Amino acid sequence: MNPSKFRRAYPSASEPAQSSSDAIWLLPNARDSFLLVRDGEQWMPPKGSRPHGSTKPAHLLGYLDDVPCYGLEVDEIEPKSIPGEARFFGLRELYGLVPDEYYAVAGYAAQIMAWQRASRFCPSCGSIWLQNDGEWGKHCDVCQHGAYPPVSPCVIGLVHHGDRILMTHKAGWGPRYGLVAGFVEPGETLEHCLMREVREETGVLIQNPHYVASQPWPFPHQLMCGFFAEFAGGHIQVDGKELDDAKWFTAKDVRTGNPTIPPPLSIARQLIDSWLALQP
Ligand SMILES: [Zn+2]
After folding, report:
1. What are the tens digits of pLDDT across the range 222-238?
2. Does residue 76 sit in the same domain as residue 128?
3. Distance 50 CA to ligand 1 centre (A)
4. Are residues 187 and 254 in the same domain?
5. What is the pLDDT of residues 29-60, one digit of tens each?
6. What gap in Å lies between CA 110 and CA 196, rounded to an integer?
7. What is the distance between the alpha carbons of residues 61 and 55, in angstroms, rounded to a whole number?
8. What pLDDT shows up at residue 53?
9. Within this chain, do residues 211 and 223 fall inside the same structural domain, yes or no?
10. Residue 273 has what pLDDT?
11. Is the pLDDT of residue 77 over 70?
12. How many angstroms is it from 220 CA to the middle of ligand 1?
């Protein structure tokens, strides 16, 4: 989230979260679908005072252009308590449906609410975990174990070789191909992770990985780190488990829709579009 648009807030013992009459309400259910209301032609999170129904605690997430944004978990039945037309949308469906800054706040809300649900007990000794003051972290007074909302770094790489790029396919994806991606493991740099993932998934060797951009990916809590890298050798060989195919495609292939490429919300698509813009 652009920090010039969104100012984060944190739990505070001295200033408990207060509802305000002009707040924006991020209302996920336990499956991260968000309750939106129809506002003319647009679907938006409800605005105003706290919606009726849920007895759960509301969490002040921050301020979008100085308007407070609260997260409040709700149940499936609660569209009935919202005036006007209301329905649930999955988090992925929100992209393009609501303005980008609201999609970003919803992704953040989903992660904080999931953290609050899953962090009630110390995972080390089972005691009640206590909220840290002034941050989202929790701690245990019995064994001193503490933690923060998880963020898992992942790499995703566009591997290019002349006028072609390496794209990968998983079972069930239909005509869509994506880019090599994977979780960073303990002890790895981002660059080493990309080299390992490309080799493990496709048998291809790469060189000169360079960072392009990153993207929070709240499914459930990855930070996608996007790279370009050059082909350095090897032959495509997929393991048939994680991937069922990998191929080189030209810019012309991609521009003409063969294969289908990832949707615009993903950094994979943004990397592909950046590379296409450099091709004749
Ligand atoms: Zn403990």
Report:
1. 999 999 999 999 999 99
2. no
3. 34
4. yes
5. 988 899 999 988 899 999 998 888 788 889 99
6. 31
7. 18
8. 77
9. yes
10. 96
11. no
12. 25
Q: Are residues 107 and 48 in the same domain?
A: yes
Last residue of some domain: 73, 99, 118?
118
- What is the domain count for the chain? 3
Question: Are 131 and 247 found together in one domain?
Answer: no
Note the residue count of the chain: 280
Domain residues for 88? 6-118
SS (H, E, C) 56-75: CCCEEEEEECCEEEEECCCC
Q: What integer pLDDT is reported at residue 39 of this predicted model?
A: 87
Dist. CA 124 → ligand 1 center (Å) = 5
CB–CB of 88/76 below 8 Å? yes
**Domain annotation covers residue 1:** no
Query: Are 128 and 114 found together in one domain?
Result: no
> What spacing in Å lies between the alpha carbon of 172 and ligand 1's midpoint?
42
Same domain, 170 and 266: yes
Q: What six digits make up the tokens of 239?
A: 């393991």
Could you say which DSSP state residue 79 is in? Answer: G
pLDDT of 270 > 70? The answer is: yes
The answer as to whether 270 is a domain residue is yes
- Global pTM exceeds 0.70: yes
CA–centroid distance, 132 to ligand 1, in Å, is: 14
CA 266 – CA 158 distance, rounded (Å): 13
Q: How many CB atoms lie within 10 A of CB 46?
A: 21
Q: Do 173 and 197 share a domain, yes or no?
A: yes
pLDDT (tens digit per residue) in 163-210: 999 999 999 999 999 999 999 999 999 999 999 999 999 999 999 999
Residue 278 exposed, middle or buried by CB count within 10 Å (0-12, 13-18, 19+): exposed
Q: How confident is the model at residue 136 (pLDDT cuts 50, 70, 90)?
A: very high
